[in-house]
Amino acid sequence: MSVPRQIYEFLKASSIAHAQWDYEVSMSIVKNRKKLLILLLMLAPILAVSLLEAAPLLGGKEAYAPSFYSPTIFFISMAIGLAAGLITGCIGAGGGFIITPALMAAGVKGILAVGTDLFHIFAKAIMGTAVHKKLGNVSPKLAVAFLIGSGAGTFVGGAINRVLYNMDPLLSEGFISLIYAILLGFLGFYALFDFLKSRKGGGGGDAHGSGPSGTPNFAIKLQSINIPPMIPFDEDFVPGGKKISWVIIAAGGALVGILASIMGVGGGFVTFPMFVYVFGVSSMTTVGTDILQIIFTAGLASIAQYAIYGYVFYSLAMGMLIGSLLGIQIGALTTKVVKGIQIRGFYAVSILAGFVNRAATLPRKLVELEWVNIPKQITTDIEFVGNIIFWIVVAIFGLWLFAKFFGNIGSLREESRVDGSGKPAAVGASR
């Protein structure tokens, strides 16, 4: 299988794993009255300050806020969280990729959108995680090596964004948009090809060849590299266990930290497939390490790289948290009455909408940076069309999901009472 195809499968597995984490954390909050009360207590003063238009007290407005601040932007953040939650809950992937582009499309500048999204992830992780239930299979040595690397990576990624912003805010904005355009474009077009192939009855291949032990071939090669110190792991699952170099684990963590800090995605969307497909770690060991990584990386990046410099808009983070909690529940329940092929289609379309939105901003940024010479009206129109396409797709998806939800609310309520489930489906799951 080609390298681009393998990268696509890796990214798809990443977004699915992150969506599953997001769902479990959100349900942990929703089903716990104490956590909901804490959320309301956290929200009340922030919302009060926001409505008084005193955001400078919280660090957001003075640093690099939207072009203007009003209570409206708070409710927009709730809508963005709702949309991301619907995508995550129903599609089972992709919602985390949409938040930063959506904030930027709503007028929030890039560096603030990244910092705010990271803080939103960190707040959700702290409130909703059930670490004590899932850390039994964590390899402490793997976790320490990875967290050292990811911690260092957050400083690199955060420094890149801040240096670009200090050089020229337009450069920072363009850089973040370019990163998202490349990622979402690559992932979205491959997902669209997969969707079209599945409609014709074509099947997908396995992107990860495995050796006799079930460990991916690439992981076997990495484990054979003997650079001390070597870390033993999976002793409980494989006779004699496995070993891998501390340097390789730390390097992987550094990459995750850089991506998380630049894009504002928490790093969880890469950690799970990296451990399983690249390092060859069992999924049981990976789950606990992934939980630790998200809390540590998102917390360090959001606080040490953005909050202390004023690049976190706390009221928007709380708005997104509330919206996503509601959206994930509705989206997850609606999977019971939505066909799998429709989910695959919406996954591709939602990712491509984010790609179009970010790509459409680039011509204007290049002109404002005086790197190209295109009539300003043309670049403005391109950006406007990209924005409209994005919000139309999000609105259609949301309205369609709500129609499915309320149209089947009786049967959904009965089914939930019987099985108590509602987990997000993996992209491409058959129904």
Structural class: mainly alpha
Low-confidence stretches: 53-68
The level of helicity is over 70%
Mean pLDDT: 81
Q: How much is the radius of gyration in Å?
A: 21 Å
So what's the overall shape?
globular
- Total strand segments: 2
Number of domains in the coordinates?
1
Order of the strands making up the biggest sheet: 1-2
Oligomer: single chain
Tally of individual helices:
17
Report the sheet-strand fraction. Answer: under 5%
Largest sheet: 2 strands, antiparallel
- Terminal Cα span: 27 Å
Order of helices and strands: HHHHHHHHHHEEHHHHHHH
Write the topology of this structure:
Blueprint: H1 3-30, H2 33-51, H3 60-64, H4 71-91, H5 95-105, H6 110-128, H7 131-134, H8 140-167, H9 169-199, H10 217-223, E1 230-233, E2 242-245, H11 246-263, H12 268-279, H13 283-306, H14 314-334, H15 340-368, H16 376-407, H17 409-419
Antiparallel strand pairs: 1-2
Helix pairs in contact: 1-6, 1-9, 1-12, 1-14, 2-14, 4-5, 4-14, 4-16, 5-6, 5-15, 6-13, 6-14, 8-9, 8-11, 8-13, 9-15, 10-12, 11-12, 12-13, 14-16, 15-16
Give your account of this protein's structure:
The chain is an all-alpha fold and 431 residues long. The chain has one domain. Helices cover 74% and strands 2% of the residues. It has 17 helices and 2 strands. A hairpin with an 8-residue loop joins strand 1 (230-233) and strand 2 (242-245). Helix 1 (3-30) packs across helix 6 (110-128). The longest helix has 32 residues, at 376-407.
